[in-house]
Amino acid sequence: MEKQEYIKIFRALANEERIDIILKLFKEGELCASDIEKSFFMEQSTTSHHLNYLKNVGILDSRKQGRNVYYLVNKENLSSLYGKFLKDLFNIEK
User: Fold this and answer.
1) What pLDDT, in 10s, does the model give residues 50-67?
2) Which CATH architecture is the domain 3-88 placed in?
């Protein structure tokens, strides 16, 4: 994985609101965007920004049902990203 991809992922995780969203989704399993918005008293645009950022770096998945979009943590991808990072970290040429 390229260094820039890691930077995007770590930037996503370097935000307190995004970490809170991830932890909430780990606990709840799946929530619609409006429930996340209400849980954290965020504006709709702020919630959308955070959710889209997390989805774009592969931390979240989403599905649309009617007018609602439901989000959940992509545990497999998150675990894989972590594993790749550790592998790349220890295989850096000296």
Assistant:
1) 999 999 999 999 999 999
2) Orthogonal Bundle (1.10)
